């Protein structure tokens, strides 16, 4: 194949990859995400109506519940923008989770608001509409910790001692895909029990890996009334600042585990976690009796997080001035019939000199 033919083939392949590609931007993330938020028209005339639409999708491995989508950033009381036959906020009870084992996507849903733009604008203007989607979500984590006794290790041939000791620690760990993630670690220290009452450090790292913020799962927020999860329809109940950034933690294990310095009790409580940040919980494991370990023993540690979560987005729309705003009805006194022509700044309309805008 000559160079000209090769160049032509490359150009065809490039164009084939470009033609018909969607221009709508999508977002990636964890849990419930905002795939798009946009108007049906980027530009409208003053006084015309427009529809704002938001597509949400659950890409995580938990059900999203008590979902509320609130439009703000525009004056919607009728003095500027007017909300036409659409509730705000809008609520939805559930969006089912994705099933990665079966390669099934989670549920999606489109919220929409029909609005009338400000009327009788004298100049073109651009407006920004903001959107916040609240929901409740959860994260589950399961880890396996392997303990060995020193008595067992020293009974092994010397060439197996270090090899077997290295098998202790966190041997397995899984975490569900969600906007808040969990990691369980014991560091570099082997979980080898020498005596009754030996203690070990366990670290649980909780990270906000999503694009939004957490809040207490029992909190009230626009559209929902709090602990019961009941809907308030178009209720404007605001999320309290005292409820922001909190995640509820519950740990299930047969180990004697104490996380009270952070959680307030041994295995449950709440932590404060802001956007994009991580929080490390330092816990203590106590082995009361090495006889309970035998040679070796596996313990499971399950960490479950429950929380509210919200994500934000914004879009813009241009509103052109009213078509009727080009002239006014102001008439020059004594100019009936436009006799002798009109003065500067006036035009002759219907036999009258009318002041131009």
Distance between the termini: 67 Å
Strand fraction equals over 45%
pLDDT < 50 stretches: 1-28, 327-336
Mean pLDDT score = 86
How many beta-strand segments?
21
Shape: elongated
- C-alpha Rg (nearest Å): 32 Å
Largest sheet: 10 strands, mixed
Helices and strands, in order, run as: HEEEEEEEEHHEEEEEEEHEEEEEE
General description of the model:
The chain has 357 residues and is mostly beta strands. The protein folds into 3 domains: 22-135, Immunoglobulin-like; 137-311, no CATH class; 327-356, no CATH class. It has 4 helices and 21 strands. It has helices at 3-18, 150-154, 158-165, 260-263, and strands at residues 32-39, 43-45, 49-58, 64-72, 82-83, 90-95, 108-116, 125-149, 169-175, 180-185, 192-193, 198-208, 213-215, 246-253, 256-258, 268-272, 278-287, 296-320, 327-331, 346-349, 352-356. The strands form 4 sheets. Strands 2, 4, 6, 8, 9, 11, 13, 14, 16 and 18 form a 10-stranded mixed β-sheet that branches. It has a 4-stranded antiparallel β-sheet with strand order 1-3-7-5, with no helix packed on it. A 4-stranded antiparallel β-sheet has the order 10-12-17-15. It is elongated, with a radius of gyration of 32 Å. Residues 1-28 and 327-336 have low confidence and may be disordered.
Draw up the topology in text:
Blueprint: H1 3-18, E1 32-39, E2 43-45, E3 49-58, E4 64-72, E5 82-83, E6 90-95, E7 108-116, E8 125-149, H2 150-154, H3 158-165, E9 169-175, E10 180-185, E11 192-193, E12 198-208, E13 213-215, E14 246-253, E15 256-258, H4 260-263, E16 268-272, E17 278-287, E18 296-320, E19 327-331, E20 346-349, E21 352-356
Parallel strand pairs: 2-18, 8-11
Antiparallel strand pairs: 1-3, 3-7, 4-6, 4-8, 5-7, 8-9, 8-18, 10-12, 12-17, 13-18, 14-16, 14-18, 15-17, 19-21, 20-21
């Amino acid at each position: 194949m000559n160079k000209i033919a090769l160049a032509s083939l490359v150009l065809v392949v490039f164009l084939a990859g470009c033609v018909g590609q969607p221009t709508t931007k999508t977002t990636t993330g964890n849990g419930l995400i905002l795939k798009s938020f946009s108007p049906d028209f980027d530009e409208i005339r003053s006084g015309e109506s427009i529809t704002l639409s938001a597509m949400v999708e659950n890409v995580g491995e938990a059900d999203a519940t008590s979902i509320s989508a609130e439009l703000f950033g525009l004056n919607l009381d009728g003095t500027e923008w007017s909300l036409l036959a659409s509730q705000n906020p809008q609520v939805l009870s559930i969006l089912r989770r994705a099933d990665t084992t079966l390669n099934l996507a989670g549920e999606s849903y489109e919220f929409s608001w029909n609005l009338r733009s400000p009327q009788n604008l004298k100049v073109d203007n651009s407006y920004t509409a903001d959107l916040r989607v609240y929901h409740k979500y959860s994260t589950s984590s399961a880890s396996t910790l392997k303990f060995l006794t020193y008595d067992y290790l020293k009974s092994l041939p010397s060439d197996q001692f270090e090899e077997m000791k290295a098998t202790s620690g966190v041997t397995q760990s899984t975490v569900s895909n969600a906007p808040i993630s969990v990691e369980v670690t014991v560091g570099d220290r082997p979980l080898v029990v020498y005596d009754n009452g030996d203690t070990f450090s366990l670290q649980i790292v909780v990270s906000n890996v999503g694009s939004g913020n957490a809040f207490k799962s029992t909190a009230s927020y626009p559209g929902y009334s709090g602990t019961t999860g009941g809907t308030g329809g178009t209720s404007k109940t605001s999320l309290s600042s005292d409820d922001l950034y909190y995640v509820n933690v519950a740990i299930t294990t047969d180990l004697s585990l104490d996380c009270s310095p952070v959680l307030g009790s041994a295995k449950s409580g709440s932590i404060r976690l802001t956007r994009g940040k991580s929080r490390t919980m330092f816990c203590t494991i106590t082995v009361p009796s090495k006889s309970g370990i035998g040679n070796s023993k596996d313990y499971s540690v399950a960490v479950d997080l429950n929380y509210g979560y919200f994500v934000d987005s914004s879009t813009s729309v241009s509103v052109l001035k009213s078509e009727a705003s080009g002239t006014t009805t102001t008439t020059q006194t004594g100019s009936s019939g436009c006799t002798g022509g009109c003065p500067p700044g006036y035009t002759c309309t219907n036999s009258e000199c009318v002041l131009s805008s």
